[in-house]
DNA sequence: GTTGAGCGTT
């Protein structure tokens, strides 16, 4: 149950030649449902226990942030290329391909931010595991880059007038 | 040219 979309290395290898059978459960279901009119079967549990329900397994959890993390980008892919790929799926508030400050080239991943979650989900379901510039890209919800800047409540002076000396330096 | 894990600059 530890299926995560972060396994890009193995997935892009498999995506090279995957028949992608989506209606495999229909064949098995027909075999079970064709012989169930003569009382309960002590040897076989009800089909609902095996397959659960008509719920598809490809159900993905909804997003919680309009910001998406796009990985698997080609080194030749830039901001404009990424923007052009995610543009028709919604209003992009910000598109950024992370480039190394030293070498000045793309790191192979970027971020896209939509105006709403609806657009982000659409873009994710439409652009996840798709080809972009010859490489299979992966769209995942991005983390919050904004970590607490200064959550220090008692950084000023207290009413008691005492000031804690935080100089816990080395005694040597 | 630089081939592949990962979460960014202001």
From TrEMBL:
PROSITE patterns: RRM. Keywords: RNA-binding. The keyword GTP-binding does not apply. Signal peptide: none annotated. SMART domains: RRM (SM00360). It comes from the Eukaryota. GO terms for molecular function: RNA binding. Residues 66-144 form the RRM domain. Gene3D superfamilies: 3.30.70.330. Pfam families: RRM_1. InterPro entries: Nucleotide-bd_a/b_plait_sf, RBD_domain_sf, RRM_dom. PANTHER family: NUCLEOLAR PROTEIN 8, RNA-BINDING (RRM_RBD_RNP MOTIFS) FAMILY PROTEIN. This is RRM domain-containing protein. The gene is LOC125552121.
